[in-house]
Amino acid sequence: MRLPIYLDNNSTTPLDPRVLEAMMPFLTEKFGNAASRSHAFGWETEEAVEKSRASIAKLIGANLKEIVFTSGATESINIALKGAAEMYSEKGNHIITAATEHKATLDSAKYLEKHGCTVTYLPVDKFGAVSPEQVKAAITDKTILISLMHANNEIGTIHPIEEIGKVAKEAGILFHVDAAQTAGKIPIDVEKMGIDILSISAHKMYGPKGVGGLYVRRTNPRVRLSPVVHGGGHERGFRSGTLNVAGIVGFGKAAELCSQEMAQEAVRVSALRDKLKNALFSQLDELFLNGDPIKRLPNNLNISFAFVEGEALMMGLKEVAVSSGSACTSASLEPSYVLKAMGVGEELAHTSIRFGLGRFTTAEEIDFVIEKVVGVVKKLRDMSPLYEMAKEGIDLKSVQWTTH
Amino acid sequence: MAYGPKVIDHFNNPRNVGSFDKGDQSVGTGVVGAPECGDVMKLQLKINSQNIIEDAKFKTFGCGSAIASSSLATEWVKGKSVDEALQIKNTDIVNELALPPVKIHCSVLAEDAIKAAIEDYKKKQE
Question: What Å distances lie between residue A98 and A120, A135, A149, A170, B107, CA to CA?
Answer without folding.
Answer: 7, 9, 8, 20, 38
